[in-house]
Amino acid sequence: MPLIASIAKYPYLAARKRQSEKRMRRVKNIVFDFGGVLIDWNPVYLYRGVFDTEEEMHYFLSHICRYDWNLKQDAGRSIAVATRELQEQHPEYAEEIGYYYGRWEEMLGGTIEENVRHVEPLKAKYKLYGLTNWSAETLPLAMQRYHFFTMLDGIVVSGIEKIVKPDPALYRILLERYDLKAEESLFIDDNAANIETALQLGFQAVHFTPDLDLEAYLKNQKIL
Questions:
Q1: Where in the chain is the domain with CATH 3.40.50.1000?
Q2: Which of 44, 90, 112, 200 has its C-alpha lying 20 to 30 A from 24's C-alpha?
Q3: CB–CB of 64/43 below 8 Å?
Q4: Residue 191 in contact with residue 164, Cβ under 8 Å?
Q5: To 10 degrees, what angle do helices 94-102 and 79-89 make?
């Protein structure tokens, strides 16, 4: 079912656009963001079945279980603490708040297959890594479900490091831990701020948006 909400009204649904158009330099490593690039994760998939109307659902996701609340779990706050504190602040939504992590797997819409199908052919030519803003408590659930994780040479997870993108420190952990050079690494993310940091650090980067054909782009850049 397509989203019918206005992006202007509900900005957490928007994909901000930032694209590097110049020809890629020699690439040795591909670094993937997960959510929005390889995995289709969206709380709408759960809460559309919880609330009676789209308006109620979007109010809840905009004002109660907000993006900035979720980001603190990506930065290492425990799910139990986050849930309890929010339920205390909004007791009228205690049950719905509990669903956020109690039924978290229902937010997984599957893989973004038009991108995931390129992981294996890219693996034959490059080292592959993940750099993700994700709770350390929920990422293992996705890793058990999706096979592409087995093809990655390493992953840096914000919830483990307690640092979230676009903080440059998280990118530097990736570079240092796996002995990578930024200029030899292509970073793919759906968030413009994350791409901006990558470019500032010397990464090659592509901003993945719904209107970008990643396969065509990578072929044009002689990556695939």
A1: 14-38+112-220
A2: 112
A3: no
A4: no
A5: 160
What fold does the segment set 14-38+112-220 form as a domain? Answer: Rossmann fold (3.40.50)
Residue 61, C-beta contacts closer than 8 angstroms, at least 6 positions apart: 10, 12, 43, 44, 47
Q: What is the pLDDT of residues 80-101, one digit of tens each?
A: 999 999 999 999 999 999 999 9
* E-state strands within the chain: 29-32, 39-41, 108-111, 127-132, 154-157, 185-189, 204-207
Joined together, the tokens standing for residue 223 give: 């990556």
Q: Which residue has the tokens 């065509």?
A: 216
Cα gap 219→215, rounded to integer Å = 6
pLDDT digits (tens, 9 = 90+) for 105-130: 999 999 999 999 999 999 999 999 99
